[in-house]
Amino acid sequence: MSAGRSSRVPPARQRGFTLLEVIIAFAVLALALTLLLGTLSGSAREVRASADAGRAALHAQSLLDQVGVGEALSPGSRDGEFEDGRYRWHLRIDPYVDPTMRTRDTIEPGAARLMLLALDVEWGDGGPRQSLQLQTLRLSQPDAFGGGSF
Predict the structure, then answer these.
(1) Is residue 102's pLDDT more than 80?
(2) 54 to each of 37, 79, 85, 133, how far by Cα in Å?
(3) The pLDDT value given to residue 72
(4) pTM for the full model?
(5) How many Cα atoms are found within 13 Å in the side-chain-facing hemisphere of 112?
(6) What is the CATH number that goes with domain 19-102+110-140?
């Protein structure tokens, strides 16, 4: 070795991330988190909508179970609400007319007859409201004292 020469090896270039790479990584992370949070909030909305629909179905079933208990059904309509107005309902009772019958048979007074119960339940604040429509048939026994209400 000569005295004038140094035995130094050029310093190795340090490896790392450039500023541009770090910025791109943060942008990709932010986009992924935005998509994830959007999915989670959408799922939470769906769970709430499902819970509301389930509660509406339970209220509707409860109301239909009470209609005509202990008294004869008579045609008419009724409105009401559940849970302090959160769910609103409209019940319509009409005599059932069989669509397959070509001629209308006369029904004897005092005979039992089928009644069509149509229940509409609505809920939701502002925007498009959610609704549930149920229909069922009930056999209406005539009231011994003539007439009756639901």
Answers:
(1) no
(2) 26, 20, 17, 13
(3) 73
(4) 0.64
(5) 6
(6) 3.30.1300
